[in-house]
Amino acid sequence: MRFNKEKCIGCRICEVICSMEHEGEINPKKARIRYKDNWPQIGQVEFCRLCASKECVKACPHEALVVEALGNITIKQSLCNGCMECSDACPFGALPSDGKYPFFCDTCNGQYQCANWCSTKALIR
Predict the structure, then answer these.
(1) Is 123 within 8 Å of 114 (Cβ atoms)?
(2) I need a surface site. Which of 18, 31, 33, 104 has the fewest CB within 10 A?
(3) Beta-carbon contacts of residue 100 (< 8 Å; ≥ 6 apart)
(4) Which residues pair with 2 in a beta bridge?
C-alpha cells in the first residue's frame, strides 16, 4: 500500500475503518494505521509496510513475531512482553501499539479496507 500525502485531508476514516475491521469498535487507538498530524506541515499516515527486511522480527528478543506465508506479521501475545524493541527497530517508525502490544497491518486479508474507504484516494493499494 502507498500513501500520497498531498491527497490526504486528515479525516482519519482509515483509523476508524481499521479499528472496526479488527476490533469491532470505533477506537482509533486500536487501529493498525495512524494519522499523525504535523501541523502546520501536511500530516502523515503510519502503518506497517510489511517490508522485506523485517527488522522488527529480527529485533524481537522473545521470538514473538512470526512471518506468515504471504509476508504478513503476526504476534504471539503469549510470548510478547511489550518491550517494543520491534517498534524501535522499524526503519519507518511505523509500528503503532496499544501500549501493550504492537499492531501489524495484515492488509485485511488483501482487501485493504482503509484504502477502500479513503475518499480522496490518499491510500492506494
Answers:
(1) yes
(2) 104
(3) 82
(4) 124
Burial class (CB in 10 A: 0-12, 13-18, 19+), 28: middle
Given a contact cutoff of 8 angstroms between Cβ atoms, the answer to whether 9 and 120 are in contact is: yes
Please give the DSSP secondary-structure letter assigned to residue 66. Answer: E
> For residue 106, which amino acid is it?
D
DSSP H helical segments within the chain, as ranges?
Answer: 13-23, 55-59, 85-89, 113-117
96: its cell numbers: 503503532
Mind listing the pLDDT tens digit of every residue in the chain (125 residues)?
Answer: 899 989 999 999 999 999 999 999 999 999 999 999 878 888 889 999 889 999 999 999 999 999 998 888 999 999 999 999 999 999 988 888 888 889 999 999 889 999 999 999 999 98
SS3 41: coil
Q: What pTM does this model have?
A: 0.86
SS3 assignment, position 22: helix
